[in-house]
Each structure stands twice: as structure tokens, then as C-alpha cells.
Amino acid sequence: MIQSLLIANRGEIACRVIRTARRMGIRTIAVHSDADAQALHVRMADAAVTIGPAPVRQSYLVGERIIAAALESGADAIHPGYGFLSENAAFAQSVIDAGLIWVGPDPASITAMGLKDAAKRLMAEAGVPVTPGYMGENQAPDFLAAEAAAIGYPVLIKAVAGGGGKGMRLVEDPADFAQALASCQREAASAFGNPHVLIEKYILSPRHIEVQVFGDAHGNVVHLFERDCSLQRRHQKVIEEAPAPGMDAQTRAALCAAAVRAARAVQYRGAGTIEFIADGSAGLDASRIWFMEMNTRLQVEHPVTEAITGIDLVEWQLRVASGEPLPLMQEQITLTGHAVEARLYAEDPATGFLPSIGRLDHVRLPETGRVDSGVEQGDTVSPFYDPMLAKLIRHAPTRAEALDGLAAMARSVECWPVRTNAAFVARALSDGDVVAGRLDTGLVGRRGDDWAARPAPGEALLRAVARAIHPAPATALTGWRLNAPPAPVVVRLDDGDCVHAVTPGASDSAVITRYRNGYLASEAGTTWLITPWRPAGAEGEDGAGTIHAPMPGLVTSVMVAAGDRVTKGQTLLTLEAMKMEQAIKSPLDGIVIELPVIAGQQVGADALLIRVEKEPA
Questions:
Q1: CATH class entry, domain 544-613
Q2: Are the C-beta atoms of 501 and 532 separated by less than 8 Å?
Q3: pLDDT digit string (tens) for 531-549?
Q4: By CB count within 10 A, which of 261, 290, 509, 538 is most buried?
């Protein structure tokens, strides 16, 4: 058995591997870039090694540094996680050549399945149904256009070395083919160093269904049933579940048998996923499900398979890599209940899913279900890496219960000042088509704008914040009159412009947390910063004019310096936020006594921008 394991990855998956390794008594070594020196996976591991600057091409993608880190730290094995170097056959071979155990498939298997066109030819030879299309060597634009016409529109142009939704173009009109082909080839050359493409028939009601397979070095290959990953945004999975809705026993048996044949065709060892595209227009049927590609690694969505089978796939990876046979044979693997997973991202759906970066001043993740997280409160979301914060997983006896439970988990997420997609996920899980199992890969694109809109805080939530700002009159240090109607409290939301006058009250669903000069209020997966509002020019009792950033933004210019005399209404600096530039003006005549920001600086919500004080009389 492996004794000391280096994880060649970061974030959530590194933490996930460490948890299983620790339970198995295996020593763990983390690697990290300079930007990740204080990251959660580094804090969790038994040892950690620095491998370079923040950019991945100077750290996590430098195989030589990772192998050197393993050798110097005394590791006897390397687990690649997913992404980064996990499907790099040359790196896998270098690990083996260095005398280390590679926790993954044989490099030859990675190579065999690494190019989509070659993989499809291999699968066809193994009796695995493949999508109709062209996957030959002739890459002449006129020839490919003719092949597309023969296949019949719509068609999908795909980079043969692609993945993660890159190098892919849908073409519905022959007139658009040449431009789409050129664009796809440019992206493929840039992203993968290989401009070659294949042409596939585009399925009009596509469902993305994949089968988890596992092999060992003793010739055993099993499947662990299927997952449905049809809820995708721009070819990136958002919500995954197992088993697939509407999958009957006969179709499942045929699909899983095809997946096992695919794995056997490349003498597969370790965890892998066979991805299929299904025409769901008339329900799931084996005659309308075709092979797409194989992922020769652990998948992000593996927890839903673990939930329905009760199997720890990382433990299986470590045992198989150590030379052990599979812990269970096919007839011993059973399916129980239903599981759903959502990816919690640091992004703002309301602004086109732009990544949201910065310090996680406040984070509360669900206390029910399973949460695989790569961050804790106080950590920083970096612009250099994937913005996934955590995975939320719910397992229940029925699909309806699993969906409801996961939606509740998403609604309970609190995060500030970094935005998340929690509310988006909660709405998606409650959508009528999703609940009914009417899924296809275009559903998020059609419905996503409705799910993405940033909601306004409910009246009950605002009343609860007002009550926190001004508690019951009998306990507040303010004047009040018996039997008089409660005075309204004026509050400002974190967008800086939305002001509400509300009376204090209570809310059963709102979560209120004191934060700097205001309150964080969370409801249904969305968190707001709500502060007491004062009219422009209002001053504190000490005569100071203190101005905080109304939301995260970029200081675009600073017109004054500490010590300058300023007049009321004078523009002091400008802040760009939410794609708008806002002039920050002085609330009074006085002197600038504090100016902690400079032009070009990114600031968080409620950060101190400037402090102006009246001159002494």
C-alpha cells in the first residue's frame, strides 16, 4: 500500500484526496504556488512544497517541479486529481520513470483516448456505438464542408484534442461553416497545440450521460452505473445527478455494458468515465445513445456515484495503484437512492457569470448533506485558478427528495463580499422542467437568464435588518414614545443606490450578521450588505466625513492627497464598479486626513476609501 502521497493539484480536489488518504493512514504532501501558500489544501496536508509563481504554467503545469517535490519530500506516489496534468500521458510516464507510483491509468490508455477522432475509431472497433460523423486526417476546409453537408445539419465541429467545452462550435447553417471552422481551429491550436477537428452530427435534444468505470491491473473492469450531466452552461457542467432520470433497467444494462467494453479496449486501470450523448427527444433508448469520449481520470462529479454506491472512489484509486485487485466485483456493486451535485462557484450570474475574486470575509456553507470544499472563511479567491469554491451533494431515497434537499443546501449558502451562484443553483433545482426530468444540454441556455437575475431582498429581511440597527425601543438608547407607531429606518443596499425605508420587524428565514459598519443579510442563497443610510453630506458626531466603497470595485483615479483642503461636493476620487464609474464626492468642507487607496487598486465592498475631517475652529 502507498505510504506517502503527493497530490499534484489544489483546491477542492486536493482537500478531497487528503481526507481519504488520512483515513487510510497515508501521509500527504501538498504542492502549491506562491499564491496558494496559505490555501486550505496546504494547511490540511502533512507537508507542503512550493512549486512556483501563481500562473499555472509556471507552477501546477510544470511536471518536472512536481516530480522533484515528490522525490525531495519522500513521496512514493503522485495523485493528479482532475484538470492540470491528470490526463497528460507524458507526465504520467515521467512519474513512472522517476520510480514513483502513478495514481491513474497507464500512459498508453491516456494516449489512446486522448484524441477524440482516434478514440472514436477505437470504440467503433470494440463494438461501442459512436456518433455519426467524420474523424479522418483530411482537414481541408472544402472537404470538411462537404462532409458536414453529407452528415446533415446541424453539425458540431470539435477539436480532436479538446476538452472542457473548448474547441467546439455548433453550426446550423452551411453558410456559417467556414467561419466556425476557422474559429474552432484557431482556438484548438491555441488551447491544445493541435488544430485538427472532427465533425459530428449534432443531436437536437441532447442529453449528456456518462458511466463511471473502474479497472485494475488484474484484468478486472466494472461499472458503477451512470450519471446525467445534461445541465450545462456553455458546455460546462453545472448540476449532475445519478442515476439518470428516465433510465430503465434494460437501457442501463446496455449502456453500462458498452462502457465496460470501451474500458477493456484500452486495458484500462483506475477510475475513468465513458461519456455518451443521448437523443432524449423520445426518452432514453440504447439505440439512440452514442459514445463521445473518455475522461481518463476522476471526475468532478464523482461524489454522486459514491453516494448511490457507498464506495469511496479515491480509496479504490489508491488501492488499485498499489497493485491490489478491485475491492468489489460487478455483482457486488448496488445502486441505492438518488444523488445530485451542484458546483458552487465564485461568480456573479447577474453580470454574465463574471468571476468574483477577493477575500472571503464571511462564508457559511451548508451543515446538511455533503460539502466538498476547498476554502474556509478568511481565504482568498485568486484570479489565477478555477473559481469553484465547493461542491454541494445531496443523497436521498428519491430524486424529488434529493432535488429538494440540494436546493435547500444552496439557499443556505452565505458568502461576502465574493458573489456565488448559489441562488442560481437553487432556482435551477426548483425549475419545473428540471423537477420533471425534462433535461437536455440546452436547458440552462434557454432558462438561465431567469435563474441568474439577482433578486431584491424580501421585505421581511429588510425589516429584520432594521430591527438589528434599531432594536426594541425599551432596550435602545434612543428616544421613543409609548404607543407611537414605529419610526422607519432607512437602509442602503450594497449597490450603493438602492435605499429603503422600513420599520423594524422579524424574519424566520433571514440570517443577519454584524459586518463592519452594517449587516450582512442572507436569504435564499444571496447575501447583501445593508447599512444605515445617511443623506449625502451627512456627518458623524465627530465631524468626520468617512466614505466606504458601496461595492467591490476599481479605483480609477484619485484627485487629492492626504492633507489637502477640500470643499463640500468636490470630487475626490472615482470608483468603477458594476461596469459604471462613480464619482466619490466630499460630504463636507475640511481636510483629507486618511486616504488608504491609490489609482488602479481593487477594493472590496465597504472598504475605507477616504476620510475628511472639519478643520478645527
A1: mainly beta
A2: no
A3: 886 544 344 434 458 888 7
A4: 290
Burial 550-573 (b: 16+ CB within 10 A, else e): bbbbebeebebeeeeebeeeeebb
User: Which of the 8 DSSP states describes residue 162?
Assistant: E
C-alpha span between 255 and 249 (Å, rounded): 10
The active-site residue out of 233, 252, 269, 297 is: 297
Contact (Cβ atoms closer than 8 angstroms) between residue 262 and residue 128: yes
Quick count: other Cβ atoms within 10 Å of Cβ 596? 12
Whole-model pTM: value is 0.81
- Phi, psi (5° rounding) for residue 424? -60, -45
Residue bearing cell 435534444 = 205
**Class at the top of the CATH hierarchy for domain 133-201:** alpha beta
Query: Could you confirm whether domain 119-131+208-336 is CATH 3.40.50.300?
Result: no
Q: What does the DSSP assignment read for 97-144?
A: HTTPEESS--HHHHHHHHSHHHHHHHHHHTT--B-SEE-SS---HHHH
The yes-or-no answer to whether 119-131+208-336 and 338-454 have a common fold is yes
* 338-454 maps to CATH 3.30.470.20: yes
The DSSP bridge partners found for residue 521 are 512, 528
Per the structure block, which three cell numbers stand in for 287?
439505440
Q: Which is nearest to 134 in space by CA: 126, 180, 145, 123?
A: 145
Sheet holding 289-295, edge to edge: 289-295, 270-279, 206-215, 221-233, 236-242, 338-345, 388-396, 370-373
Q: What confidence tens digit (pLDDT) does each residue in 245-293 have? A: 999 999 999 999 999 999 999 999 999 999 999 999 889 999 999 998 9
CATH fold of 4-103, please?
Answer: Rossmann fold (3.40.50)
Q: Where are the beta strands (DSSP E) in 204-260?
A: 206-215, 221-233, 236-242
Stretch (H or E) spanning 572: strand 571-577
CA 513 to chain centre: 26
Q: Where are the domains of the chain?
A: 4-103, 119-131+208-336, 133-201, 338-454, 459-477+486-532, 544-613
